[in-house]
């Protein structure tokens, strides 16, 4: 046997040497497939939720981050001296999208700053946190507005950091039985906390609440108060959706503001910005190439789908975006008892690409489906007259579908009503104020306004560009304010909800472009002591109370003529008729209006009772003269 073995070994050695030289080997075994390392997964604890949830009496916390396609995530913070320690490496859940870790040995009464360290390069705050610390802007926040604000962990990290605390201050609500005003009777006051009082806080705004209640409004619409970039902002550059911006006050201060409003019969509507987010957002940063979102972002389009986008455009057909949006609205509805949302740039909730106004506004079935889904979700949380208001400005046929689903649509009358107040009659037709012009079946779905945060101020244009003829000048302040009064009489006579921009009731006349369009504006509370401006406030008060206290101003039976200099609105309800008539021209105009019945007519503006010998009203009105006549006394 040994004699046979040696020759065989020799032959084998020769074959091996030959194969090595030629680069080929006998195919005696299959070539092994290279293995790709995989991240092990760990079941998500049943107590986990988006962001942070505290367990074990606040001694422990389960922290989660939704971050598909990432390879490693650590949580760093005050609890581990901002070190990427093995115990704080987050585990990947079996869904391959959610990372989690449990942190122990916490003090429930301590605020902890923390961040996520992703893929060894990126530090971001928690998208679901309810408070952030900003190294660049927090130093400008007054200790009166936000007492005992936690210091930023300087030298430990960079960028925005999240804050978590188990035993947070808990607000005790006092007004649990607030009944929201009917949509049709809603009078909204749009308010920017920054420019309403010099202290720019919820607390200082509360001190003016009686001023607003006396005015008669029954809803306040807060411009965005979720954490936005910087401090001096309109708030549309939002970055954290669950955190109230600290520049205006604490979480409990906002809750108290809402509670106190409810106690005075005033609903609170929140301006919600979900068309886009800005670069400070951790959701943007997690999937960003340095210039724009990457194609694997769960939330954002690489490029905006419409021409009016700012920041980075949400993809509202993405399940991740829909999930996030629903969490946001649910959070504010349940934790802050908000009564409604005004959704900014709601027309942008589309994946149909457009480059111009016409394409952007065209009927969009997919956009309708998105909004119906969100609206139905909101109704599932709170079916009790919750306000869903859209800044939409799309094709009327699309807005009708949304209105039929119960949503309310912003209706901008600024241009035509300002042309009327300035005395430029050919362009002063504001018939778009009437819901029937939109094809709506109910007036409650159309929110008319002469001013919002976004338009030039009426009285600035009156004084700057008003019509002037011999003996009469719209540019004169007293005249301009009187014409504002007349316009308000018409606005509140039109059936449906109405909105006022802050200080419009005092004839605010500082341009929107003062200090830059979105820059802070002079706060003119001294207007209230000016008898001419106070007269405008008093007129607003009267018109609002007439609207709220007399059902005729919600009547679907009306006629109008608002295209000429002599304008009127006639409403009928049962045995009563109201006619609002005014001369928006700069010269005398004679009326020719069928009042429908003869006899005595009461002037709600304080004028003498008028007796009509026949049904035609043919009085001559001076420029700026107006009346509110009714057959029966109004409340």
From TrEMBL:
Specify whether Signal is a keyword of the entry: yes
> Known Pfam families for this protein?
Alpha-amylase
Q: Which CDD domains match?
A: AmyAc_4
Where exactly are the transmembrane stretches of this chain? none
The entry's protein name is Alpha-amylase
- May I ask which residue range the UniProt record assigns to the signal sequence? 1-23
All copies of domain Glycosyl hydrolase family 13 catalytic, residue ranges: 196-547
Q: Would you identify the family this protein belongs to, as annotated?
A: Belongs to the glycosyl hydrolase 13 family.
> What are its GO biological-process terms?
carbohydrate metabolic process
Q: Which SUPFAM superfamilies match?
A: (Trans)glycosidases, E set domains
- Sorted alphabetically, which keywords does the UniProt record give? Signal
Against Gene3D superfamilies, the record matches this protein to: Glycosidases, Immunoglobulins
User: What domain of life?
Assistant: Bacteria
């Amino acid at each position: 046997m040994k004699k046979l073995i040696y020759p065989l070994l020799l032959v084998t050695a020769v074959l091996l040497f030959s194969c090595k030289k030629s680069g080929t080997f006998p195919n005696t075994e299959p070539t092994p497939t290279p293995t790709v390392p995989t991240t092990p997964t760990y079941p998500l604890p049943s107590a986990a939720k988006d962001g942070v949830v505290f367990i074990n009496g606040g001694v422990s916390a389960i922290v989660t981050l939704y971050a598909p396609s990432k390879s490693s995530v650590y949580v760093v913070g005050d609890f581990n001296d901002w070190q990427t320690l093995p115990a704080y490496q987050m585990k990947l859940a079996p869904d391959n999208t959610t990372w989690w870790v449990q942190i122990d040995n916490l003090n429930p009464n301590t605020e902890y700053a923390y961040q996520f360290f992703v893929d060894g390069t990126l530090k971001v705050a928690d998208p679901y946190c309810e408070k952030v610390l900003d190294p660049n802007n927090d130093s400008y926040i007054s200790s009166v507005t936000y007492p005992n604000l936690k210091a930023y962990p300087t030298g430990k990290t960079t960028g925005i950091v999240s804050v978590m605390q188990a035993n947070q201050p808990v607000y005790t609500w006092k007004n649990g039985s607030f009944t929201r005003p009917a949509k049709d009777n809603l009078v909204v006051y749009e308010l920017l906390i920054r420019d309403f009082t010099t202290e720019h806080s919820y607390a200082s705004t509360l001190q003016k609440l009686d001023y607003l209640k006396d005015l008669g409004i029954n809803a306040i619409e807060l411009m965005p108060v979720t954490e936005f970039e910087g401090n001096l902002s309109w708030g549309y550059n939002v970055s954290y959706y669950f955190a109230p911006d600290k520049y205006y006050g604490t979480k409990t201060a906002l809750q108290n503001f809402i509670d106190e409003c409810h106690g005075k019969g005033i609903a609170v509507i929140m301006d919600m910005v979900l068309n886009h987010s800005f670069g400070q957002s951790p959701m943007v940063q997690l999937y960003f190439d340095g210039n724009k979102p990457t194609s694997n972002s769960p939330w954002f389009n690489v490029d905006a789908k419409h021409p009016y986008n700012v920041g980075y455009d949400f993809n509202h057909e993405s399940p991740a975006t829909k999930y996030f949006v629903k969490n946001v609205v649910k959070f504010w509805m349940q934790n802050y008892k908000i009564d409604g949302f005004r959704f900014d740039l709601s027309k942008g909730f589309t994946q149909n690409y457009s480059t111009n106004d016409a394409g952007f506004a065209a009927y969009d079935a997919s956009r309708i489906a998105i909004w119906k889904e969100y609206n139905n979700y909101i109704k599932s949380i709170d079916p009790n007259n919750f306000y869903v208001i859209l800044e939409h400005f799309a094709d009327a046929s699309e807005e009708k579908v949304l209105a039929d689903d119960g949503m309310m649509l912003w209706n901008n009358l600024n241009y035509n009503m300002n042309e009327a107040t300035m005395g430029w009659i050919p362009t002063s037709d504001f018939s778009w104020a009437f819901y029937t012009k939109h094809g709506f079946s109910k007036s409650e779905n159309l929110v008319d306004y002469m001013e919002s945060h976004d338009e030039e101020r009426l009285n600035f244009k009156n004084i700057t560009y008003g019509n002037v003829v011999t003996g009469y000048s719209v540019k004169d302040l007293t005249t301009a304010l009187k014409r504002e009064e007349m316009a308000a009489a018409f606005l509140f006579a039109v059936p449906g909800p109405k909105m006022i921009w802050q200080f419009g009731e005092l004839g605010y006349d500082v341009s929107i472009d003062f200090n830059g369009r979105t820059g802070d504006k002079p706060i003119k509370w001294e207007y209230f002591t000016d008898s001419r401006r106070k007269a405008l406030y008093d007129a607003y008060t009267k018109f609002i109370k007439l609207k709220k206290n007399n059902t005729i101003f919600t009547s679907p039976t009306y006629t109008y003529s608002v295209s000429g200099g002599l304008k009127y609105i006639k409403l009928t309800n049962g045995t009563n008729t109201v006619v609002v008539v005014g001369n928006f021209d700069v010269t005398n105009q004679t009326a020719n209006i069928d009042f429908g019945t003869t006899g005595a007519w009461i002037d709600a503006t304080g004028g003498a009772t008028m007796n009509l010998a026949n049904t035609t009203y043919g009085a001559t009105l001076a420029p700026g003269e107006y009346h509110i006549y009714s057959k029966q006394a109004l409340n």
